[in-house]
């Protein structure tokens, strides 16, 4: 449903519902001189998981929290397990940690593949672009539900998810991740099957998506290399995307604040695969968890007087609230909005290509999409290593005892970015459970200072042609964040 | 209905070859428990029958059902079913956007009035006049009622639509309500599970589209062919249950030996579903095989029955208890045989359906008898 109205030179446009995003989303735009002057992002779906969790056996968070989302369920389950491990002071066994990394990485890579093939690229196969030189190729490869690349990607993803079948019993809504590790150890035969599965996925991506070895993509280090890849690189959908990006100038579309947050992904014996931290125009820094707070000024939630740290947070919907325009709260770090996701992880970790892109022309649709693809290659390479690290017969799950009182945060990285669960246990039951999901950061509404959330900022300046009711530029920017709306509000 | 494409024509248009089509027919026969002799009959039905449009709506949900569905066992089955339902309206996967999508929905509803199937993923929240799930500026409840009005049958995908699921757990902040409590004048088939198994979903929808009728349902409205047996009845760890060998904690000696998970909370003995036979992710595994108990996600109220990590205490209702004597376990086995009989009955019903359609020479004369 879209509608327009105008008064004194500015026009309003409501875009939504969006299909090919996970969950429901509506964006209200104010237009002036053919561009977006202001954007208001609304998450129109609320379920109240945080309330449902209160009063229950803390272990039940492992079953309830993943059901926030059928696409990021493993990440939700990992965050819940980490929070429970935190209150028990429990450290997962090495085997458990490595298996958990494989499980989480599988979902994240699967999500990146879905995003590129099913959610993002089909927009370029719309009739709107019929005159562009690259259109016939995009149409053949990416037309929704029919394109050859789309079918192939869904097959590859199904193959990849065998990893979750083997290690975790099923997907979606996996149950295997526990505070002390996993519920099942891999034996030697599993390792062979895992390696074969990852090998098949590697081949599929090297043939269709990249047209090159994963290592070559992972090691890209400068903006000019990307230009060379576009001009003379191997044939593949990556190159096709670079062609489109150059033609439509996606490197200058959808810039937000260039402030990035990552909790760090895939713990190692000493350090995680992707570092924890923040990266802002002032440079790299550490994450100060005590400086995270959620502001309810423009969320339809009670307790609007001041922002709350998630340990003191609440989720009490207020349907009478007229200033609120979303169920989504506005999380801020040091009072500022931060962007999260693959681009944030790669910025914080210092992947040279992504840093070069963002520091030379700003975070953009291009930066977000390239970061996801580079990360896909990097993560798959790490997964192959983790399969070797699994030790058949070694302990896979440490045991702990839940204290009757305690609190801890479970912080992990979902495909879409930083995910945190803040758990408080009192008298052996859950007394408080607050969740800040990646898209809560990215698609947050304005805060008390009127500061727009990252997507709201990214949309400003996007071109909207006369008569366009679902402006393509807006679609590209929204989807470049790979939103997960059911996680956003939960 | 004149001029409507047949399923086979739709598949051809999607680039599916004759060979693949026949392979699909045999897969379907196998999934529905039919012998190879039924393959030509299924093929014939699909070549002559006009396509039944399916409208797939999303309410308050997490999309796990769609996620499960799109990776069913055989990529071909998924392709075929997707082309069969043709994504007439599925807002997660569809190509068009915004009002275009709404226009397609309206168009299909008008053109196929009384002849389309409505598949619902998720459920409507009733508190605050439906404000917790707004789609295109209106409560999902309104959209659901509007589309259900002229549907010939409704499929409730998953536990949200069938029962409410965890979003309806105490205190049920939004009053999330299963579909059959708001749509009361249509035949409804429930396919519970969080999510349901992909092959169960494709099996149900294929059955309905191929034979133009509902599969045989149990008293709770679930298709008997997939929900007539307990996880426990066909669990490969069952011998350890009978022998009293249990896992006490994840990764203990019992876990290493693959003992029964009853004491770490397995709900297999009270859960009717096909996980232990069909399994997940192309038959790779299922939760119990990965060392975690069944959480009973296909059972009504599974979200408010006490901790998932506490052992079941209400086994008496199902015919045997944990301290069962051999006689009482024998009773349980008898119940399993009862399940097999029911399955046989379902297959017989299918055979009758086959005959009916095999005899009908004029596919275009079909009127919906899904009721």
TrEMBL record, chain A:
The lineage of its organism: Bacteria, Pseudomonadati, Pseudomonadota, Alphaproteobacteria, Hyphomicrobiales. It is an enzyme of class 1 (oxidoreductase). Belongs to the [NiFe]/[NiFeSe] hydrogenase large subunit family. It comes from Ancylobacter polymorphus. It comes from the Bacteria. Its cofactor is Ni(2+). This is Hydrogenase large subunit. It holds the Pfam family NiFeSe_Hases. Keywords: Metal-binding, Nickel, Oxidoreductase.
From TrEMBL, chain B:
It catalyses: H2 + A = AH2. PROSITE patterns: TAT (PS51318). Its cofactor is [3Fe-4S] cluster; [4Fe-4S] cluster. [4Fe-4S] cluster 1 binds at residues 62, 65, 160, 194. The lineage of its organism: Bacteria, Pseudomonadati, Pseudomonadota, Alphaproteobacteria, Hyphomicrobiales. Its EC number is 1.12.99.6. Heterodimer of a large and a small subunit. [4Fe-4S] cluster 2 binds at residues 232, 235, 260, 266. It is found in: Cell membrane. Keywords: 3Fe-4S, 4Fe-4S, Cell membrane, Iron, Iron-sulfur, Membrane, Metal-binding, Oxidoreductase, Signal. One of its GO terms (molecular function) is metal ion binding. One of its GO terms (cellular component) is plasma membrane. It holds the Pfam family NiFe_hyd_SSU_C. The keyword Signal applies. This is hydrogenase (acceptor). NCBIfam families: hydA (TIGR00391), TAT_signal_seq (TIGR01409). [3Fe-4S] cluster binds at residues 275, 294, 297.
